[in-house]
């Protein structure tokens, strides 16, 4: 059976590399981030069916949850969700605006992560979780950062 994954924060760095590595291992990948242009090279290489692109801003969690839920339904069984979206700045002068952006984005991702194990039925993770309970898939979640 073919396997499917979702990478959130897929447009650069670790997320882009993981998306490419999963595609090279024959998974279908739902790749999400605010910028999709960098991912088009992967879509051209692996096809629109295997590399499904979705614009997502994790600062808009309700909308992001709906997008994720729809993506999970489109892909079918999802075996791996990588929560990688985040920002990081070198901030040796402790500029508060930079620090605040890091806290707001990265803490938001961590909080979203917490919805999954406790099974918040209103969140997109419930779609993933319900399948998990029915034994149709196994889920793994990674938060880098
Ligand atoms: N590299 C390091 O040394 C280091 C150290 C500690 C932790 N981390 C964490 O590890 C992860 C990957 O690091 P990296 O170096 O690969 O970072 P990166 O190249 O900056 O990639 C971050 C990814 O997160 C996405 N992202 C950022 N804000 C987003 C938002 N509001 N909504 C949706 N997606 C968003 C970006 O896509 P868009 O901009 O297109 O949305 C991008 O795809 C990040 O979470 C980072 O905070 C990295």
What do these coordinates show?
- This protein is α/β, with parallel strands linked by helices and 145 residues long.
- It has one domain (4-143): NAD(P)-binding Rossmann-like Domain (Rossmann fold).
- Helices cover 43% and strands 16% of the residues.
- It has five helices and five strands.
- It has helices at 13-24, 40-46, 61-75, 96-115, 125-133, and strands spanning 4-8, 28-33, 51-55, 80-83, 141-143.
- The chain has a five-stranded parallel beta sheet, with helices on both faces.
- Strand 2, helix 2 (40-46) and strand 3 form a beta-alpha-beta unit.
- Helix 3 crosses helix 5.
- The longest helix is centred in the last third of the chain and has 20 residues, at 96-115.
- The chain is globular and about 50 Å long.
- Mean pLDDT is 83; it is low at 117-123 and 134-141.
- NADP nicotinamide-adenine-dinucleotide phosphate (NAP) is lined by residues 9-15, 33-35, 56-59, 84-88, 105-106, 144-145.
- NADP nicotinamide-adenine-dinucleotide phosphate is lined by residues 9-15, 33-35, 56-59, 84-88, 105-106, 144-145.
How is this structure best summarized?
This protein is an alpha/beta fold and 145 residues long. It has helices at 13-24, 40-46, 61-75, 96-115, 125-133, and strands spanning 4-8, 28-33, 51-55, 80-83, 141-143.
Ligand species: NADP nicotinamide-adenine-dinucleotide phosphate
Oligomer: single chain
**Shape assignment:** globular
Please give the number of β-strands.
5
How many angstroms does the end-to-end distance come to?
32 Å
Residue-averaged pLDDT, rounded? Answer: 83
Please give the largest β-sheet.
Answer: 5 strands, parallel
Find the CATH superfamily.
Answer: NAD(P)-binding Rossmann-like Domain
Spell the H/E element sequence: EHEHEHEHHE
Quickly count the domains: 1
Across the major sheet, the strand order is 3-2-1-4-5
Give the helix level as a range of percent.
40-55%
Class of secondary structure makeup: alpha/beta
Low-confidence spans: pLDDT under 50, at least 5 residues? 117-123, 134-141
Give the CATH class.
Answer: Alpha Beta
Number of helices: 5
What proportion strand? Answer: 15-25%
CATH topology: Rossmann fold
Q: In CATH terms, what is the architecture?
A: 3-Layer(aba) Sandwich
Estimated radius of gyration: 15 Å
């Amino acid at each position: 059976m073919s396997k499917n994954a979702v990478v959130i924060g897929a447009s650069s760095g670790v997320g882009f590399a993981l998306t490419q590595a999963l595609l090279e291992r024959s998974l279908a990948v739902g790749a999400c981030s605010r910028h999709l242009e960098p991912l088009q090279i992967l879509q051209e290489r692996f096809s629109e069916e295997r590399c499904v692109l979705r614009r997502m801003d994790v600062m808009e969690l309700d909308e992001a949850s709906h997008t994720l839920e729809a993506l999970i339904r489109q892909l079918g069984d999802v075996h791996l969700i990588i929560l990688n979206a985040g920002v990081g700045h070198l901030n040796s002068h402790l500029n508060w605006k930079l620090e605040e952006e890091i806290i707001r984005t990265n803490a938001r991702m961590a909080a979203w992560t917490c919805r999954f194990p406790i099974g918040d039925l209103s969140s997109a993770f419930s779609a993933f979780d319900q399948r998990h309970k029915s034994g149709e898939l196994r889920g793994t979640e990674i938060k880098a950062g």
